[in-house]
Amino acid sequence: MDFEEVFNKERVTRKFTNRRVNEKLIAKIVEKAQQSPSLLNSQPWRAYTLMGEPLEELKKASKENIEAGVKANEDFASMLSLNWDTFPSQNMATMGASQTYFFRNKLNLFTKANNEMFNAPAIVFLTIPKTSPAWSVFDLGIFAQSIMLLAIDNGLSIMPAHSLVSYPDLVRKYARIPEGEMVGMAIGLGYPDKSAEVNDLKYVPDRVPFEKIYKLTK
Ligand SMILES: Cc1cc2nc3c(=O)[nH]c(=O)nc-3n(C[C@H](O)[C@H](O)[C@H](O)COP(=O)(O)O)c2cc1C
């Protein structure tokens, strides 16, 4: 696919069909993503794909946690400050406002999709060692973006979501991730359910006006 086309297609999908994703394709995508740059070529990332029965078990266990009111406990929460500066806070607030508008008060669809792990037939969990500098979080983000663009180039749809890593101990258990690794983020992969309302809410989130984020000095 033309790069511009891939890049323009990078929109999230909140409900996938049951169609399975070829495991060899996912491995090929992750292997290519290893080309991503990282600080001093440290390559702090690791990727764990869950599909089939173990993924269904994780979905079930996560849902039970949600229903029992177990609080989300992301590994990154311990590392990253949750005190947001006004700039991203305002961007998030604007997004929240548009959600109410575009979702026509159907925010429950959004919540349901998250709670059901977007019905993703495959999820790639991304980790870095628990002992990591902030640079490794940056590197993991680059690695994740490479995976997403390569996935789109290979005809897949993507769903990056922190809600997928709300219960990292469960993820570690089902994806067989060693204790010493932080489960930073996860990306659902699959094929979009075109009939799902949550994918068709006429909701295309805007981006901040370019002048607000860019300055040239010469
Ligand atoms: C780090 C990260 C975490 C995200 N977490 C969630 C999530 O938990 N649930 C969700 O529905 N969307 C999540 N998203 C998707 C964003 O809400 C989405 O990318 C944003 O609203 C812009 O929409 P677009 O990518 O379709 O243009 C996440 C995206 C990123 C990059």
From TrEMBL:
Annotated Pfam families: Nitroreductase
Oxidoreductase in keyword set: yes
Nitroreductase domain: residues covered: 12-191
InterPro entries in alphabetical order: Nitroreductase (IPR029479), Nitroreductase-like (IPR000415)
Keywords assigned by UniProt, alphabetized: Oxidoreductase
KW Magnesium (keyword) present: no
Highest taxon, organism lineage: Bacteria
Gene3D superfamilies reported for this sequence: NADH Oxidase
UniProt record similarity statement: Belongs to the nitroreductase family.
UniProt-recorded name of the protein: Nitroreductase
